[in-house]
Design brief:
Rossmann fold; Asparagine synthetase B; alpha/beta; Alpha-Beta Plaits
Length: 419
């Protein structure tokens, strides 16, 4: 009899566990802190629980199991949530599965292990990704050249490239900042690190770092880059084995006619670009639209593309937001010239006024990459030495949401090809 009662009690408790769910709405009206909502979902995955990402349902909401711990964490972090019944959850999922709805429910299975490629020490800029990861309370580890060259990337699921110059030209800051103490110190540190790692030139060392990152993506890794890390990474791949640096950067002259020696087949996203030869010009190549765009701040917005959630869940996932139109922001690499983008690369976001691409995505080997133009989604023209953005003032930033979409992307269950 006691055994029977215990079984009934266990059955009743099981019903309670699965009788309700937590819906974290991600629309403009239903969520008071969009950025920390991603952190709640990541935290749930880190507890070995699964979640569902409801693409195009109320701004890309999350459906989590209902536990006291998750409810408490939402309250602590200030994230809006709704406890819904099993029947209500089934109703939502039925709606999403309807062929008439451009929606999809994607299962999130595992919290991705995150690496941020960034130099040690303080620098005259801030990194939007590390700021939003910290604000959303999503854990990450920092790595740099030594770890990358020693295959340290292999233990990570997702990699972000900090504001970086992979060409060995020190960010093309030479024209304006060559006499600045921070520039001189950074150059010395980069040269010392290259020498420690067995290189006579920083450009050669950065080239090999870029090649290691390429191999990481080709092998199945997820890479996200912003600002100058986007175009300088591809330039380094195209120029592997070619000296494109002038004497003030590496101590000797560049290769004659180096433009014609670039191999665009080696790049991820860009092709047929023209390098900026003048070392005093704060620009890498024709890829970037910063000096060509002629768009006033008041009109600077980019639009997210609309994809089929059921047939194209990956770009749909990366474009989840509570608005389709997002205010623009600048950087050393603000946006991308469409003429220089490879045909197999998806444009996720574009500026309608001039057709430039702001947000792009592609596949390389078994892995994925996303490039996002600009420096800080909530600082229109971030300059050297400017204070960091306080995300407490921007908890619903649609521009920062795009970064966090990419962070959760590796957690999605991979579907078998329909073919």
């Amino acid at each position: 009899m006691k055994k029977y009662l215990l079984l009934l009690l266990f059955y009743g408790l099981s019903l309670q566990v699965f009788a309700s769910y937590i819906l974290i709405p991600m629309d403009a009206e239903g969520q008071k802190n969009h950025l920390k909502a991603y952190g709640i979902t990541y935290w749930t995955l880190s507890k070995h629980l699964k979640a569902k990402w409801l693409l195009n349902y109320r701004g890309g909401s999350f459906l989590l199991p209902d536990t006291e711990d998750i409810q408490r964490e939402c309250l602590i972090r200030g994230v809006s949530f709704e406890v819904i019944s099993n029947d209500k959850a089934a109703e939502i999922l039925d709606l999403i599965s309807s062929p008439s709805q451009n929606m999809e429910a994607v299962v999130l299975e595992k919290a991705p292990k995150i690496a941020v490629y960034t130099p040690k020490g303080n620098h005259p800029w801030d990194d939007a990704v590390t700021m939003v990861l910290s604000y959303a309370e999503i854990p990450y580890e920092t790595i740099y050249d030594e770890e990358v060259l020693n295959d340290g990337l292999l233990t990570f699921d997702w990699l972000h490239l900090h504001h970086e110059d992979f060409t060995g030209q020190y960010g093309k800051f030479y024209g304006a900042y060559r006499a600045s103490s921070w520039y001189i110190e950074e150059k010395k540190e980069a040269e010392a690190l290259a020498e420690k790692l067995g290189y006579s030139k920083v450009s050669d060392e950065k080239r090999d770092v870029a090649l290691k990152i390429r191999d990481y993506v080709v092998g199945g890794g997820f890479m996200f880059a912003m600002c100058s890390a986007t175009d300088s990474f591809d330039i380094a791949l195209a120029a592997a084995g070619v000296d494109i640096c002038e004497p003030m950067f590496d101590g000797d002259g560049s290769d004659p006619g180096y433009q014609n020696k670039l191999d665009y087949s080696k790049t991820f996203a860009f092709t047929n670009f023209i390098l900026e030869r003048n070392p005093r010009v704060y620009e890498f190549s024709s890829i970037d639209m910063t000096s060509k765009r002629n768009i006033p701040k008041s009109s600077d917005y980019f639009t997210l593309m609309d994809f089929s959630a059921k047939w194209d869940p990956v770009p749909t996932m990366l474009c989840q937001d509570h608005t389709a139109i997002i205010k623009g922001f600048m950087g050393q690499t603000t946006s991308f010239n469409r003429d220089d983008i490879k045909a197999n690369v998806l444009i996720l976001g574009e500026t309608k006024l001039n057709g430039e691409a702001k947000y792009i995505h592609g596949i390389k080997g078994k892995g994925f990459f996303t490039f996002y133009g600009g420096h800080d989604p909530e600082d229109y023209q971030h300059k050297v030495g400017d204070p960091k953005t306080e995300l407490d003032l921007h908890p619903n930033s649609p521009g920062y949401r795009l970064i966090l979409n990419n962070v959760l992307f590796p957690a999605a269950r991979k579907k078998k090809q329909k073919t």
